[in-house]
Design goal:
Layout: E1 17-23, H1 30-38, E2 45-51, H2 58-63, E3 71-74, H3 80-90, E4 95-98, E5 104-105, H4 110-114, E6 124-131, E7 136-139, E8 157-160, H5 177-187, E9 192-202, H6 213-226, H7 231-264
Parallel strand pairs: 1-2, 1-4, 2-3, 6-9
Antiparallel strand pairs: 4-8, 5-9, 6-7, 6-8
């Protein structure tokens, strides 16, 4: 754990932030992600990496950083959210943050800037992320819109430890597991501190970036755990309509692109 705070934070109670990264065959980008964490000016950071038995050079790259990574394990898992649960169990920080293996913290002082604020009474901190592949700026929203869809990005959100005291991610979930925690927190009226900072610059390789029917079904299943009929049914209907519209535009885009790509050769 890095626990020597910078001068402007000395004399204050500096909460420990546990940064959790899940990896699998991430040799092309994991070093840059690690460096973005190690360069942070905020020093009260616990850094945890959970690897799913990578077969490329990911493990050797991580091991080259030695004790700079607080906890590192590599073992079989049942998917992304199972690995995230392992990271949570290894963590001891006051706040938890999940950074993807192909994601970068936006600046060297972003965590220090966020934790200079008074966070008394807040259970979540929300900021924005930039998708490097698409060039999109995603601003986290914590409102009634969470009833309709997930509006908080993992890479743009810090969570108080106590939110995980009676919660674990559903390991059978492949795409929408983070939606459950966000919806649960909103329905339980936990408060979010809105930050004006860009927290992370994210890669475009996440499974949720794909138009997967499974993700929409998972969203419906999660919503049914926390909402009752008829509200859940109406919201589930809009999820199916949203999927149909996205699928339609996705297919039209590729139908237009494929001939063009074929003629270009």
């Amino acid at each position: 754990m890095i626990d020597s705070p910078p001068k402007r934070l000395r004399g204050r109670m500096t909460p420990c932030v546990s940064i959790i990264t899940v990896t699998h065959n991430a040799e092309t980008h994991i070093a840059k992600s690690i460096e973005s964490v190690l360069r942070q000016s905020y020093r009260s950071i616990e850094y945890i990496i959970v690897d799913g038995c990578s077969t490329d050079q990911t493990i050797s790259i991580i091991e080259s950083y030695g004790s700079k990574v607080t906890h590192f394990i590599s073992e079989p898992d049942r998917g992304l959210y199972d690995a995230m649960n392992k990271g949570i169990r290894l963590s001891s920080g006051d706040w938890l943050y999940f950074l993807g293996a192909d994601d970068l913290l936006a600046s060297d002082d972003v965590i220090e800037s966020i934790f200079q604020d008074d966070l008394t009474g807040y259970s979540l901190i929300g900021g924005s992320v930039i998708n490097l592949g698409r060039g999109r700026h995603f601003v986290s929203s914590y409102s009634y819109r969470l009833l309709f869809r997930n509006t908080l990005s993992h890479q743009g959100t810090f969570y108080r430890r106590f939110l995980f005291e009676n919660f674990s991610y559903d390991a059978s979930t492949r795409v929408s597991g983070d939606y459950e925690l966000n919806l649960k927190a909103y329905l339980e009226r936990h408060k979010l501190k809105q930050s004006g900072h860009v927290i992370a610059r994210c890669g475009d390789g996440g499974v949720s970036s794909q138009v997967l029917y499974r993700g929409y079904l998972e969203e419906i299943r999660i919503r049914n755990r926390y909402l009752t009929w008829p509200v859940a049914s109406l919201l589930n209907l809009q999820t199916l309509v949203r999927f149909a519209c996205k699928r339609f535009w996705f297919s039209r885009f590729w139908a237009a692109r494929v001939p063009a790509l074929g003629s270009a050769g």
